[in-house]
Amino acid sequence: MSTTRLLLNEFEYIAPASLHDALDLLSTGNDVKILAGGTDLLVKLKSGVDIPLEILLDTKNIAQELDFVARNGYELEIGSLTKLSTLEKHDTIRKYHALSDALPLMASVAVRNMGTIGGNIANASPAADTACPLIVYDATVCVSSADGDREVLIHDFFKGPGQCDLLHDEMIVSFRLPEVAPNSGSCFLKKTRVKPDISKISATAYLERDGDVISACKVALGSVAATPLCLCEIALGAVAKKASLELFEELAKKIAAAIRPIDDNRSTAEYRHALAEMLVKEALETAWERAGGIL
According to CATH, what is the number of the domain 184-290? Predict the structure, then answer.
């Protein structure tokens, strides 16, 4: 997409001085769109996508309130305006293996320097690379409005392509992830047409072990349904069983059989089925090894 295209929409531009002011602006009932990194919104506007827009709310002056990575008791909290490149380089994030895997695979360096984790999730793309890692880590989405705050489990946050559990007067302020469990490991893998492209399919696996036995197992897939897809109920079938290549292969086949992907301009349903089995198996094996297990 050429960056030289003009914004033809007429709108009012406002950069609130504080989060409080931003939430007040969202509560006015006008068509307000939030500009964080702009890597999605500006592309759509320049492409002529019909987006209702009366006010463009630039978050540049409130970044200091929502750009952080911090411990909060037994949780890790990530501010919604934290840049993807900041997370990519953060030592604490490296402990969350799947999220650490996903970040350097997203788009280009320039996009990661602009894009935010809040924008990646609020965009509600089935291919959002941070979504499935957050799902397997049981992340909580913290949202705020002028009327107060609320929390939503990320498993329940996505409603459809471009649709999420975020009201017109709300914005995401942070994400909370539980502390990394001992003897746990996770892995994120994806396939694309070219490296910085949107994924054809992605697979994320999370495992905890008790000796050579699996004590927790979660799997999530991207780009195979209308939303990032949690397949944790199927993954529960591996719990209390001894880890093995055969078990992971069997689980990968069950998960691949359970999805109903579609044909689109990036891939075919048949190809996604084949890739799902391969990626899930590899992600499970890598997660187990990162948990300290031996196959």
Answer: 3.30.390.50
